[in-house]
Amino acid sequence: MNNHYDYIISGAGCAGLSLLQRILLQPALSSKKILVIDEKPKIINDRTWCFWEKENGLFEDIVHHSYDEIAFASNFFSNRIPLNNYRYKMIQGIDFYNAVMQYAKGFANVEFKYEKVKKLTTENQLAIVETENNTYKANYIFNSILFPGTINTSSNKTYFLLQHFKGWVIETPNAQFNPSVATLMDFTVAQKEGTTFMYTMPTSTTTALVEYTLFTKDLLQPIEYENALKKYIEEDLKISNYTIQHEEFGIIPMTNHPFPLHEGRVVNLGIAGGQAKGSSGYAFQFIQKRTKKIVANLISKNHPFYNQSFSDKKFRFFDSVLLQVLHDKKMNGDEIFADIFKKNAIKTVLRFLDNESNLLEDLKIMSSVPMKIFLPAALKQIFK
């Protein structure tokens, strides 16, 4: 058995399959011998990815629904906000998996194996994957598996919160929703656990994803998520007659942990590569930017490596400051986000959250929040 490949993709989730799709679309790379390895096939709808963008993206054909307006609600500020040139888009996990896997079937040089990855190393200019049963070698491994112990949650330089959420896709017998408006954040729910909001994504007048989301140090008991969803649907959305069509649960680390972009010939992607934004948890578009850069380097330089830019470091600093304020409970998240959305144009907010804002836009965002709270937090980060 020839266990040597040009590239091994370790983890067949959003990051790994996004990279695979981009590689196969490039004639200069599409004939490379590629192994995609994960513990089990992606055959269930286990994720929903939402993001905003101006143009049509790589996965436009599988966008499940999109919105030209969002709603923001809190006890400090509420508004419906047109997105102007942006669209807020939803992709279902199963549609994404099926689309990439179907495309990859047209390439005899791509293999899929389902084994649990135990260890990744670099030795003698080769990257090595050890599974429970086999060893595979490649010129480069692209890894999106977040191994236990990767994040040091006890370091005094690292802030660590969990973004955890329970979502129901509900269907009603009568029209209840406006499918052109996505409720991005509704902070009018109880904040006793920490930063807490509801997220509602209608896909028709009778169907919507309703999600209960928290930024806290600890998870809740399963029944607490369900009770919160029931209460919100019945009391806030005023819906008493509905059926649950689908459920999903997720956990995203919100941290300023310095995830390495690569270790030897192992290149990190997704959460393992720091592509989940520390202050918001959004990851889909950051994964697309990362995989696009990697593919460009493979073509032009014959390697996937690049260093963090000044802009990357700047936004990591901003994320660290916000995480510190939330972690130390200096200010509630609902009030922070209300200030940001109230005092800035939506274009500025979205560019800032996308790590694309310029200095003037950064200053506008920073001036939106209380300096007496955020300036000491910023100084603390600088002198750490």
Describe the structure.
The protein is an alpha/beta fold and 384 residues long. It folds into three domains: 4-65 and 93-150 and 259-300, FAD/NAD(P)-binding domain, CATH 3.50.50; 160-254, 2-Layer Sandwich (D-Amino Acid Oxidase, Chain A, domain 2); 310-382. 29% of the residues lie in helices and 30% in strands. It is built from nine helices and 18 strands. The strands form three sheets. Strands 1, 2, 8, 9, 10, 11, 17 and 18 form an eight-stranded mixed β-sheet that branches. The chain has a seven-stranded mixed β-sheet with strand order 6-5-13-14-15-12-16, sandwiched between helices. A hairpin with a 2-residue loop joins β9 and β10 (126-131). The protein is globular and about 60 Å long. The relative contact order is 0.15. The model has no long low-confidence stretch (mean pLDDT 96).
